[in-house]
Amino acid sequence: MSHSEKRISPLIQYQFPEIYREEGPQFVQFVKHYYEWLEQPGNVLDQTRSLLDFRDIDKTVEDFIVYFKEENLKNIQFNVKSNKRLFVKNALDFYRSKGTPRNIDLFFRLIYGSPANVYYPGDDLFKLSDSRFKIPTYLELSENKLNPLFEGKAIRGLRSGATAFAERFAVRKIVDNSFDSSGNPIQI
């Protein structure tokens, strides 16, 4: 709407017949002032001329925010401590991220004005089969007094060219080269 359509008070005097303008200028002036009063912000004529602007949440009056809220945010108490217009305006994004930790934190910040800590009890549950199974890789050597010197060093096989890191050195005594049913040497 253009500015001239919003204000009709300048056009009032031309709506009266000539006889009223000549013989009753005070009456014409009275009606003109009445329309000027109606056009002031918050009065009836101003609000009816601005109805199309009130469809936009950024331009609407405070009374209409409740209607926007009822349309977009049912069942949410409206004692918001933050910007109500911004909250209603972004309601669709709020619903799309429903259930995420970010959404829960946003909800508490908007409604109650304080951050939320999301805690998942499943993070602290003990699971019986939660351990990691690791097959140890080791190298068996013949007994030699230089074997402990390999500990903490990178080694390379002379014949194979394979490389490895000797993490630790452990001595185990094998009894007459006996092995158990799974193929592991029997130790003392």
- Beta percentage is 5-15%
Strand order of the largest sheet: 1-2
- How is the biggest beta sheet arranged? 2 strands, antiparallel
Number of domains: 3
In N-to-C order, the SSE pattern is HHHHHHHHEEEE
Oligomer: single chain
Got a strand count? 4
Described by the principal axes of the CA atoms, the overall outline is rod-shaped
Structural category is alpha+beta
Helix amount: 25-40%
Poorly predicted tracts of residues? none
How many alpha or pi helices?
A: 8
What is the CA-based Rg, rounded?
A: 42 Å
Average per-residue pLDDT, rounded, comes to 77
What distance lies between the first and last C-alpha atoms, to the nearest angstrom?
97 Å
Describe this structure in words.
With 188 residues, this protein is α+β, with helices and mostly antiparallel strands. It has three domains: 3-49; 72-121, no CATH class; 147-187, no CATH class. It contains eight helices and four strands, in the order ααααααααββββ. The strands form two sheets. The protein has a two-stranded antiparallel ribbon with strand order 1-2. A two-stranded antiparallel ribbon has the order 3-4. A hairpin with a 6-residue loop joins strand 1 (153-156) and strand 2.
List keywords for this structure.
single chain; 3 domains; 188 residues; two-stranded antiparallel sheet; alpha+beta
